[in-house]
Amino acid sequence: MEEYDVNDDIPALLESEFGDNAELAEWNDLKDLFSDDESALISFLDGIGMKRDVEGYENSAFVTRGGDRYHSTSMPRHYFVSRHDGDVPSGWLVHDDLHSNRLSLGSWDSDREAMVRVPESEEDPPGESIYTEDFSSDPGYTIAKSSTDNASEFEWDEEQENYFVKTVDGSGSGEWWVFSGTPLFSEIRDDDSFTVSFKFNPVHPDWGSYPGLRFIEDDNEEIEGSEVETEWAFRLDCRDSSGCSSSTEDTHSRFRLDLGGGDHFHSPRISDLDAWYEVTINYDGSQGAAEIEILKEDGSVFAEESGLALMASDSSFSRILLGRRSSGPPEYGDTSIIRVDDILITGE
User: Fold this and answer.
1) d(CA 323, CA 318)
2) In whole angstroms, what is the distance from residue 132 CA to residue 254 CA?
3) pTM of the model as a whole
4) Cα-to-chain-centroid distance, residue 252
């Protein structure tokens, strides 16, 4: 370990070597941490490699006391600590101690190592929570189905603590819809910055049946299915970027992010069904652009993209609808099952 000259600007040297947050350990902090727990102090000293000081000043390290480096400035007696394990050498001036001189505070004008404190870097503070649902209890979502619905299901799964969605294509020839809606939350506009995250499980995708999460503007707790205008959405989609016409192939789908301007983003084909994917969408209102990341259960990246025009100009949303809307009778596959969990929306 490097020794520091007692007259050097040690705080500046520590910042240069260990980062801007680095600083000399403070004696009073050590007392706060270990005054009631000698075993924790011993573990700490063992952990940093501080051995018992037999000669008097060998195994010691600079610290501060009350923010001060020096006990005396006329003679630069810099505060330091030594581990004595209760046996202080003769002639050693003890200013303070922990646990009967297990660790002693002294001062002198000689060079020695420094005990460095490097606080963890402060991460960006979490954004304001706008809406959150972990499905640990029944969310009591509002459910709306058209008269032509054909036995679609929405259900809170008490055992698994997630939300079950089964959509079955309508039996009639007109427009039909099946939705389960969150409560209304604070309106989020296209010039706001926000993060949306959730877990999505494509339990059983069926070709031609594409449920998901629709983000809509609403001011009515009741869901008017025929009047729903989706601002943007995350949902299942067909297997290929074009075509979607061969009913003889497997029905594995892809994820699709519908953007407010009418464009969309497609993930690769979903290879693992009945598996959880973690979806995070970060939107920068000042840039009008979003990035999406989809992680597999093992934490690996399944899909990601940036620079997405998620929100149309002057658009907003204040609710999430789970489900889908379509028109006409089914022409091919008709039933899809998904599960959703851990929905979180935060804003700056």
Assistant:
1) 17
2) 26
3) 0.63
4) 29
